[in-house]
Design a protein that fits this description.
Strand order of the largest sheet: 4-3-2-1-5
Distance between the termini: 40 Å
Radius of gyration: 20 Å
Oligomer: single chain
Helix content: under 10%
Structural class: mainly beta
Number of strands: 15
Largest sheet: 5 strands, antiparallel
């Protein structure tokens, strides 16, 4: 059982026999002597997606769960369902788009390096690496000599995500995107 002070983003805990994914942890240290450090935690229920905010002290215990992490890749999208395949035993899992809406701008068909989180053989959510490579499908033409200036332009990526990129990039190039901030990092 983890204490509230040990919670990290992406961890799954049980609250009132419902599974919750930790989305954000803010620490508040009161200036009064003897006051306890408070942790404002924002949870998202999985697979339902309901938001729950709680303020906890560092000594509050939460129920930990047996979580299984498996590497998967996106096979295809059909309607509002996304189908993923386990990279080790080739089992296929379908999940509703509403459950994984936060990661959808960063995944495309055939993409690997995605981790699926399971509890009791039920796919609850997906975990992405810190950065992903995505292809630019639409942007303004590249400007020669633009690398000296720090100007940017909008670019539409293969997943539908729109980001600001340096002017020297053109359509068809692959770039790295930070999955936490949604911003351009570098060429891939």
């Amino acid at each position: 059982m983890p204490y509230a002070r040990e919670l990290k983003k992406g961890q799954i805990v049980a609250i009132d026999s419902q599974y919750y994914l930790v989305r954000q942890v803010d620490t508040k240290r009161p200036s009064a002597r003897g006051a306890q450090t408070l942790y404002k935690v924002r949870f998202c229920s999985v697979p339902a997606g309901k938001i729950l905010s709680k303020t906890l002290t560092g000594d509050d215990l939460l129920a930990d769960i047996n979580l299984l992490r498996r590497p998967v890749s996106l096979l295809y999208k059909e309607g509002n369902e996304y189908t993923f395949m386990d990279n080790e035993d080739y089992t296929q899992y379908a999940i509703n788009a509403d459950i994984i809406k936060d990661v959808l701008p960063y995944i495309h068909e055939g993409q690997e390096n995605i981790t699926a989180l399971f509890v009791e053989d039920q796919l609850l959510c997906l975990e992405l690496p810190g950065s992903v490579s995505l292809k630019i499908i639409e942007t303004a033409p590249a400007v020669k000599g633009a690398s000296a200036a720090a100007r940017s332009k909008p670019a539409l990526l293969v997943t539908g995500l729109e980001v600001q990129v340096p002017e020297y990039l053109r359509e068809g190039e692959w770039i790295k995107i930070n999955t936490e901030t949604g911003k351009f990092m570098s060429r891939s």
